[in-house]
Amino acid sequence: MNGQSTQSEQPHMGIYSALNRLPWPRSYIGRILLVCFVGTHIPLLALSVFMIARSAATGAVFWGEFVVLLAATFVAAGATLVTVWGMMAPILAASRALEAYRDNRTLPSLPRHYTDEAGKMLIEVQETLEELNTAIHNLARAADTDALTSIGNRRWLVTRAAEQVARSRKGKAPFSLILFDLDRFKAINDRHGHATGDSVLIGVSRYIKASIAPTALFARTGGEEFCIILPATSLAHATQVAQELQAGVEAKAFASLPVGRVTASFGVASHEPVDTDFAATMARADEMLYRAKGAGRNRVVSTEEAEIA
To answer: b/e map of 218-233 (b: 16 or more CB within 10 Å)?
Structure first.
């Protein structure tokens, strides 16, 4: 099976499992160092027993040899423990990299030039986290992006709108909202086909995105319905922006259709202190859009104009 390891392909875990049952030390590195310490001192203990037995049998005391042996063993044990600790660095680095990415989405920068098993592990961890990070980023972007027009979708808009509402409640400048809808879009689909309709949606989206400020938030909220959030923008300015966009859409040719065949109706509202959430502002803008449609389409209606009327 591709991408899957069978039980027989896994390294034998018996020794590791047995050492894992030790009550102390609890850390992996501590157990490795314990093994090294015990391993280097077993010969010392065996030789000590041998020398004691030899002294008892011959009556001679070999203290000099015993001291030299003891010193040499401790020096060798110390050097072994320090070296093993250093050799554990790749495992520590990989473990900390995985933990940091899990907790903070921090992408590590592990070395890639080592070629032994530990070095290959570092490379695999680094490349796996990079691929995972790219996949997560792509999934998040896909979840927030309209597949046809490549602008934001309703989900993305609602999230960003909540941020604008929060900023407004902190006393910062209020934002304004533009909703627009392509006029008689169903007739375009019915007469010219859905491929032409899709081209119109893409063309209008590109035109609007190129025409609004970089700080504006632009999303497709329905089939032929779009929304623009203008941060720190007054109602009067937002209305002016909508009027320019309405005239611009009417003056352009989209897909294979003649100039003037594609038009749009616009509704404009501003977020008010009485609005409990973004939905309240959007409802007023939607009402203005409905009035623009009812007044003959291809026009802009704002809440200010509606209040005057």
So the answer is: bbbbeebbbbbbbbeb
Higher pLDDT, 49 or 175: 175
Q: Are the beta carbons of 155 and 144 closer than 8 angstroms?
A: yes
Residue 294 structure tokens: 């009812």
Active-site residue, 224 included: yes
pLDDT at 238: 96
Q: Which of these is catalytic: 117, 127, 163, 224?
A: 224
Strand order in the sheet with 264-270: 217-220, 225-230, 176-182, 264-270, 300-302
Residue 24 has pLDDT above 70, yes or no: yes
CB 230 within 8 A of CB 238: yes
Asked if 217 and 228 touch (Cβ cutoff 8 Å), the reply is yes
Helix (H) or strand (E) holding 230: strand 225-230
Q: Which amino acid is at 293?
A: K
**237 within 8 A of 230, measured Cβ to Cβ:** yes
Query: Using an 8 Å Cβ cutoff, are 226 and 181 in contact?
Result: yes
Give the H or E element holding residue 257.
none
Cβ(263)–Cβ(249) below 8 Å: yes
